[in-house]
Write a structure and sequence with these properties.
CATH class of the largest domain: Alpha Beta
Strand order of the largest sheet: 2-3-1-4
Order of helices and strands: HHHEHEEHE
CATH architecture of the largest domain: 2-Layer Sandwich
Number of strands: 4
């Protein structure tokens, strides 16, 4: 969460810094400065500000699910029975607390939510659906799509440079 509710407008250098960090956030400030044609001190100040203002949400490692025994990814469309705000909020809390759910989006269209579930195998997915979906009386229906091949996975924000 952002510590500061106001954000400084992003300039060209901020965007170059963000683009470089999205490629590799392990760069030293000296390496970052070289890539973006600035000084290390300026980069350090700007990165600190971008973190404080919540532009940079987190510094994380992306892990290959198969390398850690999570070989099944499913995209699930969920339709709620009742769209009362308290029930929507309860579903959001449930999905945030579910370790199997790696992404959850409230959407427009035929579904109310789209979730991405990453688990060990079909048995683990079946357990997830029984515990988190079938057991929820406010879920009208859900449709699962099992991922066969990850064609593109790029968790970056495209920046205009």
């Amino acid at each position: 969460m952002a510590k500061d509710t106001t954000r400084t407008p992003l300039d060209d250098l901020d965007r170059r810094i963000l683009a470089a960090l999205q490629e590799d956030n392990r760069l030293s400030f000296a390496e970052l400065a070289e890539r973006v044609a600035s000084s290390a001190a300026s980069c350090m100040r700007r990165v600190r500000r971008l973190r404080e203002e919540g532009v940079i949400l987190a510094d994380i490692a992306l892990v290959d699910p198969q390398a850690v025994g999570r070989s099944l990814t499913a995209v699930v469309n969920v339709e709620l029975e009742n769209e009362r705000i308290d029930l929507i909020d309860a579903f959001k809390r449930e999905m945030r607390s579910a370790p199997e759910v790696t992404q959850c989006y409230m959407v427009t269209g035929d579904a109310d939510f789209v979730i991405v579930v990453v688990v060990e195998d079909v048995t683990a997915f079946e357990t997830f659906t029984k515990q988190r979906l079938y057991a929820n009386p406010n879920i009208r229906k859900f449709r699962s799509m099992i991922m066969l091949d990850r064609v593109k996975f790029e968790p970056r924000v495209r920046l205009s440079l």
